[in-house]
Amino acid sequence: MSRLWTYCRNTTDVCGHCSEGNLSYKECKNKEKPATCANCRKVGRNSDHCVTSRECPAYTSALNQLILRTDYGV
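Above: the chain sequence. Below: its structure as tokens.
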């Protein structure tokens, strides 16, 4: 896996489940509650999914932008 954290603008850890700052998934005390996507919450989108969901609008948007910028050498 690439080192995506190199490009991350966050200065603190954000939980991948509850999107609370200053804690990691291992330290999360909200695991019994529904997941909240930090990326979607930040931009005001529907955030009732895990940050690692493939159906995440922020993920699919970033993936589509990456595909459009990719030079396939054709």
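The first helix runs from residue 38 to 42.
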